[in-house]
Specification:
The chain is mainly beta. The protein is built from one helix and ten strands; from the N terminus they run H-E-E-E-E-E-E-E-E-E-E. An eight-stranded antiparallel barrel has the order 1-4-5-6-7-8-9-10. It starts with 7 loop residues before the first helix and ends with a strand. The structure holds 2-acetamido-2-deoxy-beta-D-glucopyranose (NAG) (3 copies). One 2-acetamido-2-deoxy-beta-D-glucopyranose binds near residues 55 and 56. It is found in: Secreted, Extracellular space, Apoplast.
Length: about 170
């Protein structure tokens, strides 16, 4: 039996939806392991105080970073990207808990030019889990999480902090 003329637009719509549906790419998971180097103080600082905390505590302070992503923990290790990041002292209760927002931009290899955006907490001295809330390039539509921990802190007035990062990125 031929479909009645009034059903035709509906059937066409289903056909279009079905075509689009079969083109949906499969989501995949990429695990990246790298090191995040932060130079604090001195002429080559990669993080600066943008807003000094008002009052006696640290509540309300804001720091801006353009930190370094490397393949390994050594300074001589290969550069794989930079961050554009913001650290905000947004906890009244704890002097060592910060709101942390980062854009990781990869500058080499397969992911050159691609980025992931991360939001979460920085609790000094603890392993931190943060949410990957998006991405660009190869990481378009990304979601996932990162696990990071401080593995070394060297220097006194000029500090080099090295964090180990694992990123579990779900993307298309
Ligand atoms: C800062 O960077 C310059 C250029 O890379 C280097 O020559 C200099 O030794 C560095 N200074 C410090 C204190 O690390
Ligand atoms: C800062 O601390 C000093 C000493 O504890 C206190 O006298 C002063 O009132 C505090 N100032 C503010 C703005 O909290
Ligand atoms: C990364 O991409 C930029 C812009 O396309 C290009 O200039 C640069 O040479 C690339 N770097 C590497 C290491 O492939």
């Amino acid at each position: 039996m031929a479909p009645s003329p009034s059903l035709l637009p509906l059937l066409l719509l289903f056909a279009v939806v079905a075509t689009v549906g079969s083109d949906v790419p499969k989501e995949k998971m990429t695990h990246l392991h790298f090191y995040f180097h932060v130079y604090y103080g001195g002429p080559n600082a990669t993080i600066v105080t943008a807003v000094s905390p008002p009052g006696n505590g640290t509540f309300g302070g804001i720091w801006v970073g353009n930190n370094i992503l490397k393949e390994g923990p050594e300074s001589s290790s290969m550069l794989i990207g930079r961050t554009y990041d913001l650290t905000v002292q947004a906890s009244i209760e704890s002097q060592s808990a910060y709101l942390y927002m980062l854009n990781f931009v990869f500058t080499t290899g397969e992911y050159n030019g691609s980025s992931i955006s991360i939001v979460g907490e920085e609790v000094v001295g603890e392993t931190n889990e943060r949410a990957i809330v998006g991405g660009t390039g190869k990481f378009r539509m990304a979601r996932g999480y990162t696990i990071s921990r401080l593995i070394s802190s060297t220097g006194t007035t000029e500090l080099l902090l090295v964090h180990e990062h694992d990123a579990y990125i779900y993307h298309y």
